[in-house]
Amino acid sequence: MMNVNENGTGSELLDDVTEEMILDPVAADLAEMQVARPPRRDLPQMMRKIPVTLTLEVGSARISLEELMSIGPDSVVELDVLAGEPLVIKVNGTAIGRAEVVVAGENYGLKVIDLDGLNLDMMTS
């Protein structure tokens, strides 16, 4: 193993890694996937089969009853979220993160951006 303090700046190590990644793009892709993959969460066996409802909330609007009564088939109701902003991911009604809408085959799907409110680690301790 090379000690950076004794043998230089450490750029030699970076050169080796860069050369390996250029020579073997499959290894580079695998390394990138491993970095991007979230840590595995081990739930107790009895909790793994508990069903939850995952929803993606587009936004909301606060309107009067009068405005609600005037809504028809061609009505447009402005929501409180800007176009292009990430949407809220909820599990059983509780916000756990943000996501974007994607197309998954013939259905819509969600691409997770962050999971700030999801703390399964507390459940496993």
From TrEMBL:
The keyword Cell membrane applies. Keywords: Cell membrane, Chemotaxis, Flagellar rotation, Membrane. Residues 47-114 form the Flagellar motor switch protein FliN-like C-terminal domain. The keyword Membrane applies. It is a peripheral membrane protein. It is found in: Cell membrane. Pfam families: FliMN_C. Belongs to the FliN/MopA/SpaO family. This is Flagellar motor switch protein FliN. It comes from Pseudoduganella buxea. The lineage of its organism: Bacteria, Pseudomonadati, Pseudomonadota, Betaproteobacteria, Burkholderiales.
